[in-house]
Design goal:
245 residues, L,D-transpeptidase catalytic domain-like, two-stranded parallel sheet, 10-stranded mixed beta sheet, single chain, 14 strands
Length: 245
Amino acid sequence: MHQPNRRLLLAGASAGVALTLAGCNTTTQPDNKLKVAAGGKPKPEAIPENVRTAAVPAGPDRYQALYSAAPSEKFPVGAVKPGTIPEAFWRSDVTYLSTEAPGSIVVDPHAHYLYFIQGGGRATRYGVGVGKEGFGWSGVATINSKQEWPDWYPPPEMIERDPSIKARVGKLQSGIGVPGGPHNPLGARAMYLWQGNKDTLFRIHGTLEPWTIGKNVSSGCIRMVNQDAMDLYSRVAVGTVVKVI
């Protein structure tokens, strides 16, 4: 299994190099970002019941349906103000030709998209925020665990880079961190990426900053609007394969 690559490689390098990454039924539209090799065809596979998407209105009501408030959450999630997320990064059901198994995830950090593979040439596409320069990685990992409203334990090197974090952390059950809740940088959901028996320290998670979707902003994690992180979380299982290209 590939190991995370934290170095940003020079532009123009050969195919397969690491790209920058982040540390989540709508109107159908074509998407040609990650097609299979020339002449290849995806296998016709049924979409598992747990990855079928619910109907979402088209037109002006679509944004509201996708990013409305979720008041019944443990910590109520507010609606995302219209105009915060560019339409290109709204959650969408798209055409996506891939040989990846239904239920798996592909992340294209260059385009700022995460694809949840449905099979049959379809995928749910989410806009994401990814790693800023120097914090990118690529490879294959699996979701080792999932948590709702997770605690956040910033690694020592992150605190060293940003001493202001010290004022936000306190002693928790598993160390020094920020308890889950509306002020936690991991947002409403987190999915923890491991390679074999080792934690990569990278996560797919929600965010307090929805305006950063589509940008290179994180310390390596894959950042999603809370509503999208909640949607993806409800579909994926522990053991889900995540491929970062």
